[in-house]
Amino acid sequence: MSKKSKKKGAFIIEREYIDDQRIIEPEHLKLEEVDMSGRWGVLVLPRTIEEFNHSLYEEIKNHPRGRNIHKCWQCGNCTAACPVAEENPLFNPRYFIHIVKMGYKLELEKFKDYIYLCGSCGRCSEVCPKGVDPSGVMEAIGTVLRRYKL
Amino acid sequence: MRTENPVLIIGGGPAGLRAAVDLSEMGIEVILVEKRNELGGAPVRWKYKTLAPMMRPTEEVMNPLIEHVEKSELVKVYKNSIVEEAKGNAGNFVIRIKNGLDNRVESLNVSAIIVATGFEHFDARIDPRYGYGKNPNVIGIHELEAMLKSGRVVKHDGQPPERIAFIFCVGSRDRATNPWCCTVCCGVSIKQAIELKEILPDSQIYMIYMDVRTFGLWEKLYWKSMEEYGINYIRGRVSEIYYTGEKLLVKGEDTLVRGPFEVLFDMVVLAVGMEPGQGTKQVAKALDLAINEFGFLEPKHPNIHHDSSKEGIFLAGACVAPMSVEEAIAEGSAAAMQVVKLLHRLAKPIEAR
Ligand SMILES: Cc1cc2nc3c(=O)[nH]c(=O)nc-3n(C[C@H](O)[C@H](O)[C@H](O)COP(=O)(O)OP(=O)(O)OC[C@H]3O[C@@H](n4cnc5c(N)ncnc54)[C@H](O)[C@@H]3O)c2cc1C
Ligand code: SF4
Ligand code: SF4
């Protein structure tokens, strides 16, 4: 996103359409004794979601402050009440909850540095109609991501 | 109150049965004409396991109605039959009942008519994106009901499915098929997902929806499915289902992340909508009743279902609009009440009417 690396896949035409996370650029790649490092070894992962993976979600559900994440129905009331989201469009608690629930890992990686922007003011948790405690869920997501050194 | 001519009810589903029970309990003779060889309408025909929203066994709701009608001396049931023709006016219609098995025709006089011919399921073969009828393990909610009732939910190879998708609004809310909402299939699908999870606790279930329309108290099912059963919801609409030879590749978009998905499933359940069936069309023609732009029977006043376009003919249930069993039953009662009012009026001397 904002920190788009200039180096990664710089030669790709219409480079700005592709997220950093989807570009795989192995430093050293040898295939049948031929050095394929550099341009020829670059791989662009498809945008299509090919799997729903709930492993991270299960871990967050086990975190004391993330245990109501499964109740979220994506109304966005949390984001609407959030003072951080008001200033920074990349901080969206509603969205973070969804990508965690569905296990969209590349998307989560893209936003990993934004989850910590949560100021723990708790306004989202006050307005959430389902009792999800999104503020707590942000903390739980952060903790679990740290566990994976993300 | 006794009248000379009995009351005709066409259709033996929840609405028609309830009307028959109410009229006979008020001492009025009833002729009940049912096209199929059994009473009970859709819940019995498709073997619904339980009824949403309270998830009561279907028999608890339907059996008392069916038993009452079958035992009552005041109700004469014609199964495998249709009404071919009705002539005359409120108080005295001459009708012809035709038995579809032996083609025997009987003429009778009736005082009033209640039409309760219900609905049919949308035939998902019409919308090719799902490959229904071609792809194995793509089934309709009506077919899943019978599986749930038997307690055995399996794929075509006899193995239980692990990952199951429900697709909402199949045949509904689409200009290419039926533009209306069937009102109950969201709730029914969710009820079934809960029942599936009880039979197969390790399965993963995904509801693919455009909106979740669990109106009124049915909302409880929606919350319960998420909060107690861990059922997942994906907002989007499926564009294609492709059978890989082993699994079903379901293509759609998760509109909450702007992400196209292509994910493998073991089983896909289509929430097929409700539409006016051949039976309702037949009655509309035989009785010369008005139908609306969608093919449902059109009431005289848009907000009052029970009065048809003709005096002495009343409407009830899903032949007027998609609805739930609880509503169909209430409409049956409402139509019965209108009949009683009519008979009461007709029994008075002309100058007092
Ligand atoms: C898969 C599925 C599951 C559902 N589950 C639930 C649920 O859990 N809870 C709930 O509240 N609702 C449920 N519904 C809705 C429910 O089925 C309907 O609300 C209800 O059946 C409507 O009752 P009805 O009497 O109006 O029509 P029907 O049940 O359709 O009965 C109409 C009867 O009329 C007969 N008939 C038709 N044409 C003629 C004719 N020309 N002459 C003589 N007879 C005729 C038919 O054979 C039928 O017996 C479900 C619907 C679907 C699609
Ligand atoms: S307010 Fe609650 S239910 Fe709504 S999106 Fe946020 S966490 Fe989910
Ligand atoms: S009840 Fe639900 S599934 Fe059925 S048509 Fe309406 S919105 Fe779609």
TrEMBL record, chain A:
Annotated InterPro entries: 4Fe4S_Fe-S-bd (IPR017896), 4Fe4S_Fe_S_CS (IPR017900), HdrC_iron-sulfur_subunit (IPR051460), Helical_ferredxn (IPR009051)
Q: Could you tell me which residue ranges the 4Fe-4S ferredoxin-type domain spans?
A: 62-94, 108-132
Recorded GO molecular functions are: iron-sulfur cluster binding; oxidoreductase activity
| GO annotations of cellular component type | plasma membrane
Q: Which family does it belong to?
A: Belongs to the HdrC family.
**PANTHER family linked to this entry:** HETERODISULFIDE REDUCTASE RELATED PROTEIN, IRON-SULFUR-BINDING OXIDOREDUCTASE FADF-RELATED-RELATED
**Record protein name field:** 4Fe-4S ferredoxin-type domain-containing protein
Instruction: Specify the taxonomic lineage.
Output: Archaea, Nitrososphaerota, Candidatus Caldarchaeales, Candidatus Caldarchaeaceae, Candidatus Caldarchaeum
From TrEMBL, chain B:
Annotated keywords? Oxidoreductase
Question: What region holds the FAD/NAD(P)-binding domain?
Answer: 7-127, 219-332
Q: Which GO terms describe its molecular function?
A: oxidoreductase activity
Q: Which InterPro entries match?
A: FAD/NAD-bd_sf, FAD/NAD-binding_dom, Metab_Enz_Cyan_OpOx_G3PDH
User: Origin, by domain of life?
Assistant: Archaea
Q: Which Gene3D superfamilies match?
A: FAD/NAD(P)-binding domain
Query: Under which name does UniProt file this protein?
Result: CoB--CoM heterodisulfide reductase iron-sulfur subunit A family protein
Q: Which organism is it from?
A: Caldiarchaeum subterraneum
